[in-house]
Amino acid sequence: MDRCKHVGRLRLAPDHSILNPQKWHCVDCNTTESVWACLGCAHVACGR
After folding, report:
1. Which one of 15, 18, 22, 31 has the largest count of C-beta atoms within 10 Å of its C-beta?
2. What does the record give under GO molecular function (predicted)?
3. 9-45 pLDDT, tens per residue?
């Protein structure tokens, strides 16, 4: 992910969880299944 031009544009702390998909969990229900991350604001959620 460190070569992705979209992720490279994000202004985040180096240890932010969006940079490590293994740490992703939905901010609403805390699931780790079928989660996605917004490359505009770094919000992580699921489709539920």
Report:
1. 18
2. zinc ion binding
3. 666 666 666 677 888 889 899 999 999 888 777 788 9
